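Table 4 source record.
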Amino acid sequence: MIKRLIKIVSILIILCLIGATIFFYSIYISVENVKLHYESIVSTKIPKELNNLSIAFFSDIKYNSFMNKERLSNMLNEMNQADADIVIFGGDMFDSFASKAPNEAAKQELIGLLKEIKAPLGKFAVLGDQDLINEEIKNMVSDILYQSDFEIITNTSVRLRKQSNASITLIGLDSQINGTIDSTTAFSKINDEDFNLLVTHCPDTLKSTQVNTNYIDLALAGHSLGGQIYLPLFGPIKTIEGAVTYNHGSYTIGNTQLYVPNGLGTIDTDMRLFCPPEILVFRLEHGTTQTK
């Protein structure tokens, strides 16, 4: 009886230690350690002249809450190590703007950090739902991006080139939440013979009839934070509007491959479990294999 009791107590102690370790890791370690997720995108639509073109995508900084200058600086330094040709920001610069408006010092911190991002072929951005709560916030975020050498591509498209006339098309759509999507204008200059990359803030925008996935080869979105707490086999413990169907990882939607990274910041609780901060880095390659 005593041996059995000792065994039960020992198991309970071990379980408590495991639980405490996971809790400590999710609060003090996971939120800081950004993961660079590398993917190769292979398609016959990618011009040979753009072989090895690299694109980095990050989203959801959520500055002004748990995210601070030191944490963000470390994450962006990691991204710079990838030496991406092009960098794209997927929206949501701040968190808790209404209850704690960022001061001029915070704004200048962000400009200083974002300006240091290296991208010889351009830096582009779309705005997120938190960037569009009101005109004051929209103007502040837009000004930070402009001063940091980002081009905002709301409801428009641009050609991406690398020392030749060969190109792929980058399309930006406004946020599904708090924004106004104008796909007619955004898609007006694209065709299905080109390699088309769509960027928008909310991944569930891909469910909209306004997005013709027959024209989109690769799509990138943020917003969900991957759920922050993600349980294998079960998924995120919480989903939010705009990222209910597509909230974590990659999805095949018709001819489109959608990627939804975990973002950089956190909301509500500064905690991440099986869902580290994440930056995507893509290498483009001309080939016969379909986009993957």
